[in-house]
Write a structure and sequence with these properties.
The complex is a heterodimer. By secondary structure, chain A is mainly α. Helices cover 49% and strands 4% of the residues of chain A. Chain A is built from 25 helices and ten strands. Chain A has helices spanning 2-8, 12-28, 41-54, 88-99, 129-147, 162-177, 183-199, 202-214, 217-220, 239-250, 257-264, 271-283, 286-298, 319-338, 343-348, 359-362, 388-393, 402-413, 438-445, 452-463, 504-513, 515-530, 539-551, 556-564, 567-570, and strands spanning 84-85, 221-222, 235-236, 351-354, 372-375, 477-478, 481-482, 486-487, 501-502, 571-572. Chain A is globular and about 85 Å long. By secondary structure, chain B is an alpha/beta fold. Chain B contains eleven helices and 15 strands. Chain B has helices spanning 2-11, 99-109, 134-143, 181-189, 197-221, 226-247, 271-287, 316-319, 330-352, 361-364, 408-418; strands at residues 20-22, 39-45, 57-61, 64-66, 81-88, 118-119, 125-126, 151-155, 167-170, 173-175, 253-255, 293-298, 365-370, 387-389, 399-407. In chain B, the strands form five sheets. Chain B has a seven-stranded mixed sheet with strand order 8-12-2-13-14-5-15, sandwiched between helices. In chain B, helix 7 (271-287) packs parallel to helix 9 (330-352). Classes of the chains: A mainly alpha, B alpha/beta. Chains A and B meet through helix 5, helix 7 and helix 8 of A and helix 1, strand 6, helix 4, helix 5 and helix 6 of B.
Chain lengths: 579, 440
């Protein structure tokens, strides 16, 4: 990609100016955060310099953000995503839809590496010795399970002849590999089948063939790279690859027969055909599962399960409560997705799902295990940020944590993470004291150099959550003193966010309307859809997706559709092919 | 699940007790009496130590010293242990990532971290470590031909990124640990290792299936980008290794442990039980010569957890940050005592297992024990709390050896050479000044 490198090759005179721009871009997350790992070497120096500059970034006033004009679009197309190993979530959904599995063998698989919350980064998610052994066991148990039902799902005929073998290979093969088998593949699996049938029987032959297919890389990886070459510098994904990408993005599972048929007819290569299929998938209940999966990763719902609490400080804490927090948050997100599915609903919905385990927050009278939707008191809670489980996760073991809460808003919701503390700085939270409030302790803690410059940004955001203790329970006072929940965002690209607020409900109201939150969310969802860090080549696609997301008033459905229709999703720059 | 049940049934008697199981062919299968194989274990525990109570006290010479209160449980093994002082994790003092990430990544690799997107405790970012780890470098020297090349055992290693990776097969090729004792048991003792008709059939099935899988991998390699082809090459190598493991005909016998029951292995409360099971499995794997190289990670470098079983209810990572004189920090010493007891238990079991030539497993094993930082409250990387144990490397034990700020890569190189390597440097070359002296 000579063009990309040229655009980043800087003369000495330009350096200071351009560094300033790149810094703003990196700090704000606008126009696609760049990956240092994948950056061409010519760019690495710049990025390292940016990292150094960021160490003092909190002290400097930020330059005004540039408007995102079409002219800023990079001339190079998006890069291809490497082979994408199915995540456990995707594998589980796939064997459920392919084989009717209800046992969930993926729960024994190794966990994926997590890159800033997301588990589907193809660059780091690779097979391991351990993982392959688990695939083997899963393929064996899945195939024996499915063959107990006398071929119903995998073998479309009841005879034991070659015609039935061929029908099985082509129909199950196409569903497993998400495209028709090649001639070589048919020959390979037919020879395995025949060898087993000669020494055993038809069903055993089908069973072993299913095992081989389920361990084939054509099943385990999503291949979303076209090998076509092109004079225009961009190649479009063929229909079957695009169908796979579309289905796993919108549904988190393998394409259904209708989508594969549309791909076979070449429909996905046209704008209308792609829109028709994308809308069909989005109309299906499975689309909610796809959106829920992303939001769960983005907001780190599973982190709630491992939030540790000091049981002396919080005797109400039990593992059952942590499980209830996780379930309650998921029900809240489902509620948001079912009722409008917008950023505004995410930050302002009054829904709280509670059962008996959550009585510390909502009082008694609830069923022990079944969750009920209750309305939160509007002056105390609104939206996801005020859900007890999330607040408990963003706390210490024995007190709330204005730092974790502030850094979550800045980093996760605004894509403007504060830089790490300087090397050698103590990162211990101030010890709990019965004579002061958490705010007083943290304010003193963050006021010393060199910590103060960044904590002056982080802590005021976190202080707006001080009405919620380390368990996420509402409080009006702490240690006999009234709660002070004033604060707010002190610096952001979006000026509408920079104003004093009192409490998290007011802060949530600002976030619900902020274009920066939508820009951040759109970038993260695009990163999830592509399974890799965003790059310079994604700039135009990202800008287009963000524009449509804002114009659609922050509708998740519109965002999913915009990504599915973006150039970055539908094609990539030509790749180097092995000789 | 009927298949699993039947496979287990092959291995178990009706009363559910462990049967004598065939062990696998290995290098030892050469004709004639052969000296017992040598082995290596690395033990990691998170976030440094409470130094005031850690290092030996009243040291008047290399061999004249008192054990620290934390190390009381090691007293029976005093003559089999070697404490280093003044060995620094030099290579972890710079580079991408925060100090815990850098320390864990460097501990066995001697390498800096690459750039990447894994978020540290403090928000800084890093990639994987940039080279092979010592345990993996030892595999071809010690373990070639064993059924399992090496074990990566974990106890509550929640992080699946650079904060949880101790072992690397190469640059950015982490081998993440397995936290479920049942999975380790299956890896070692099931998978068609019986010798019945059913096991023969299972081996045949797996051989045929994995042959087809390999053909599919080769075929896909020709139809992907150059970068993806490299990735598939590695996948193919792993499938070949898997096929060797699951199709080999067994020979010889050794006693295997009973299969661990299901337990909530990822909870804090289960840590003592999981540790104990992992130690038993490790010793059994050595005894049956199923592997000769293992790592044991006790938690990960983020390590935000309580340890309710020793009445430490605060987050131990946060605890590790308190000042040396802070009374709360003494809870960290309780944690160190507990970890020491686990290492002592491992040493006890190794010393009780006698091999064919009359030596014990402890005689033939070198254990290297370390952490990602030395003093957690300042995230220091100097004067690391390293302990060596056992006779596997031939080092002169029963000593406290003082060095004057030597990079730990020198120690890694010394271990590598002790096991027969001719390498002259290990890890990041600029952080390796040569073989650490005064070990033999």
């Amino acid at each position: 990609m000579p063009d990309a490198q040229a655009s980043f090759r800087l003369t000495a005179g330009q350096f200071a100016l351009d560094l300033h721009k790149v810094e703003a871009r990196v700090a704000s997350g606008r126009r696609g955060r760049r990956s240092i790992v994948n950056a061409p070497s010519a760019q690495r120096g710049v990025i390292v310099a940016v990292a150094l500059a960021l160490a003092v970034a909190c002290q400097k006033p930020k330059p005004a953000p540039e408007p995102l004009a079409e002219a800023t679009c990079a001339p190079t197309p998006s890069i291809a995503t490497p082979l994408r190993l199915l995540t456990r979530f995707e594998y589980g959904n796939t064997v459920r839809d392919l084989l009717g599995d209800a046992t969930g063998p993926q729960s024994a698989f190794p966990r994926e590496p997590v890159v800033r919350g997301l588990d589907d980064d193809a660059t780091v998610n690779q097979v391991s010795q351990e993982g392959l052994a688990r695939y083997l066991e899963a393929a064996e148990s899945l195939s024996s399970e499915v063959m107990q039902n006398r071929r119903s799902r995998v073998v479309p005929c009841l005879t034991d002849d070659q015609a039935c073998r061929d029908a099985f290979l082509s129909s199950f093969g196409q569903r497993a590999f998400r495209r028709p088998l090649t001639q070589d593949e048919v020959a390979l699996f037919a020879s395995l089948f025949d060898a087993v049938k000669a020494t055993h029987d038809f069903d055993t032959a089908a069973q072993w063939t299913v095992q081989a297919m389920l361990q084939s890389p054509q099943f385990l990886y999503r291949d979303e790279t076209s090998l076509a070459q092109s004079a225009t510098g961009r190649v479009a994904l063929d229909d079957f690859r695009l169908a796979t990408r579309l289905s796993y993005f919108l549904w988190g599972t393998t394409p259904d027969d209708a989508l594969l048929s549309a791909a076979a007819r070449g429909e996905l290569s046209t704008d209308e055909g792609l829109a028709r299929q994308a809308n069909r998938l989005l109309d299906d209940p499975r689309a909610l599962e796809g959106q829920l999966r992303f939001l769960s990763l983005w907001l780190n719902l599973d982190g709630v399960l491992t939030a540790e609490k000091d049981v002396h400080t919080y005797p109400a804490y039990t593992p059952a409560l942590a499980t209830a927090w996780r379930a309650s948050l998921e029900l809240f997100l489902r509620d948001v997705l079912r009722h409008g599915g917008t950023v505004e609903a995410l930050f302002t919905s009054s829904a709280l799902y509670a059962n008996g385990a959550m009585s510390p927050y909502v009082g008694g009278g609830l069923p022990a295990t079944e969750f009920q939707r209750v309305a939160m008191p509007p002056e105390q809670r609104a939206g996801v940020l005020t859900q007890p489980g999330l607040l408990a996760r963003l706390s210490g073991t024995d007190q709330s944590s204005p730092i974790r809460r502030g850094a979550f808003v800045l980093g996760t919701l605004l894509c403007a993470p504060p830089p790490p503390p300087p090397s050698g700085a103590s990162v211990a939270p101030p010890p709990v004291s019965p004579r002061s409030t958490t705010r007083q302790r943290f304010a003193a803690h963050g006021s010393v150099a060199p910590c103060s410059s960044c904590h002056a940004q982080i802590d005021p955001v976190g202080f707006t959550f001080e009405h919620y203790d380390g368990m996420g329970a509402w409080r009006d006072t702490e240690n006999g003193q009234p709660i002070d929940a004033t604060g707010g965002v002190r610096a952001a690209d979006d000026p509408s966010l920079v104003k004093p607020v009192n409490g998290a409900v007011e802060l949530s109201r600002l976030l619900a309307q902020s274009p920066q939150v939508k820009d951040c969310l759109a970038g993260e969802l695009l990163r999830y859809a592509l399974g890799r860090e965003l790059q310079e080549g994604d700039t135009c696609s990202l800008a287009g997706v963000r524009k449509r997301f804002v114009e659609a008033n922050g509708s998740f459905r519109a965002l999913m559709l915009a990504i599915a229709q973006s150039d970055a999703f539908r094609g990539h720059a030509p790749v180097e092919v092995a000789p | 699940m009927s298949r699993r049940f039947s496979r287990r049934a092959i291995l178990r008697g009706a009363a559910g007790v462990a049967l004598a199981l065939p062990a696998l062919e290995s290098l030892r299968a050469h004709a004639g009496p052969v000296a017992a194989p040598r082995r290596f274990i690395a033990v990691y525990h998170a976030n440094g130590v409470f130094t005031p109570d850690w290092f030996p006290r009243n040291v008047s010479s290399e061999t004249s010293f008192d054990l620290s209160p934390t190390h009381a449980a090691l007293a029976p093994f005093r003559s089999r242990l070697l404490w280093t002082r003044g060995v620094d994790l030099s290579v972890a003092m710079s580079g991408p990532g925060e100090q815990h990430q850098r320390g864990l990544g460097a501990l066995l690799t001697g390498q800096r971290l690459g750039t990447g997107s894994f978020m540290g405790n403090d928000g800084s970012k890093a990639g994987w470590a940039q080279g092979v780890s010592l345990d993996q470098a030892l595999v071809p020297l010690l373990g070639a031909g064993t059924r399992v090349a090496s074990l990566q055992l974990g106890v509550h290693t929640i992080e699946r990124d650079v904060s949880g990776a101790l072992s690397y097969s190469g640059a950015a090729q982490p081998l993440l640990s397995v936290d479920d004792p049942r999975q380790v048991f299956h890896q070692l003792f099931l998978d068609g290792s019986g010798s019945s008709t059913a096991a023969d059939r299972l081996r045949q099935q797996r051989g045929s299936v994995l042959d087809a899988v390999q053909a599919q991998l080769s075929s896909l390699s020709k139809r992907v980008s150059r970068a993806d082809a490299q990735r598939l090459d590695r996948h193919l190598t792993l499938v070949r290794e898997l096929e060797v493991r699951v199709t080999r005909i067994p020979a010889g016998t050794c006693m295997t442990p009973s299969e661990p029951g299901a337990l909530a292995y990822d909870t804090e409360a289960a840590m003592p039980e999981v540790t104990s099971l992992m130690i038993d499995l490790l010793v059994a794997a050595f005894r049956c010569d199923l592997t000769r190289v293992a790592t044991l990670s006790i938690s990960d470098a983020k390590n935000h957890m309580a340890m309710p079983f020793i009445n430490v209810s605060s987050d131990v990572h946060n605890l590790s940050h308190y000042g040396d004189t802070d009374p709360l920090r003494a809870d960290l010493a309780k944690r160190d005592v507990w970890v020491t007891q686990q290492v002592a238990s491992l040493l006890t079991k190794l010393s009780q297992s006698v091999e064919a030539d009359g030596s014990t497993l402890l005689d033939d094993t070198l254990l290297f024990w370390g952490s990602d930082v030395s003093r957690g409250n300042v995230h220091a990387h100097d004067d690391m709390p390293f302990v060596l144990a056992g006779g596997g490397a031939g080092f002169r034990m029963g000593r406290v050896v003082q060095y004057n700020s030597k990079p730990h890569n020198d120690l890694l190189l010394a271990i590598l050479q002790a096991f027969g390597s001719t390498a002259t440097t290990f890890g990041e070359p600029t952080a390796c000044s040569g073989v650490l002296p005064n070990l033999f």
